[in-house]
Amino acid sequence: MSPTFYPPLNVRVITPKLELHGATDDLLAQLLPVVRRGMIGPPPYPFDDPMSLYEESPLRERKWLQAIWRGRGTVRPDTWRLYFVVVLGNRAVGMQDLIGVNFDTFQTVTSFSWLAPDFRQRGLGREMRSAILHLAFEGLGAAEATSEAFVDNTASNRVSAALGYQPNGSDWATRRGEPAVLNRWILRRDDWATTRRADIDLIGVDECKPVLYIP
Ligand SMILES: CC(C)(COP(=O)(O)OP(=O)(O)OC[C@H]1O[C@@H](n2cnc3c(N)ncnc32)[C@H](O)[C@@H]1OP(=O)(O)O)[C@@H](O)C(=O)NCCC(=O)NCCS
């Protein structure tokens, strides 16, 4: 696909197993059937409120798109979010977002992700988090990455632990209106550096940095 005129949409992260592509509307259209089918199984629910993915279709798809478009358009030095579609071969199978939190002051990022249910539990969740961390630390110069997951979200918590994040306390959030405890995790740059991968390629990052006010 030819590059767009908006640099964040041209960013790609390429690993031996999968690719993260800036979430263009074409890619979101490819992912739409997955969102339409739904990805929320029985409890425990993975996402804190508010969350479009908890809605019934077709409100779910509309709110999902609207949130992404809103997030794309909300770009300040202290607040930005890069949306990526996870591409496996030629298939769009999930999303992996990178969120700058007071990045101009603290160089902190956090992340958010989901995979189509058919593609879970085969190591892709860990690979896409590893990919987004490479973009954050290697590409954008992040100082630390945080993550949060409900205590019963085994997959997300295991991804964080496996990639060297350290426990960083807990917090409360609601999911579908019910309070539940979140594990907080933090990965500092020095800890990431000890496991830095040499097999991940970054594309289009230099052009994207000025859009995020990163020198
Ligand atoms: C979170 C998510 C992206 C992880 O992706 P994944 O491909 O399923 O995860 P992986 O296959 O890389 O597995 C990571 C680890 O979790 C374990 N795991 C994954 N799913 C599990 C499950 N349902 N129960 C128990 N362990 C599980 C794996 O065995 C692996 O453990 P290991 O590191 O000891 O080998 C995916 O499960 C998902 O989309 N979940 C729903 C949305 C969500 O929870 N998003 C995160 C919100 S904070």
What does this protein structure show overall?
By secondary structure, this protein is of the alpha+beta class. It has helices at residues 25-37, 59-73, 103-106, 124-139, 154-162, 189-194, 205-208; strands spanning 12-14, 19-22, 79-88, 91-101, 108-115, 144-150, 166-175, 178-188, 201-203. 31% of the residues lie in helices and 31% in strands. The mean pLDDT is 97. Strands 7-8-6-5-4-3-2-1-9 form a nine-stranded mixed sheet, sandwiched between helices. The chain has a single domain, classed as 3-Layer(aba) Sandwich (Aminopeptidase), CATH 3.40.630.30. Bound molecules: coenzyme A (COA). The site of coenzyme A has 20 residues, from β5, α4 and α5. Coenzyme A is lined by residues 46-47, 113-115, 120-126, 149, 153-156, 158-159, 162.
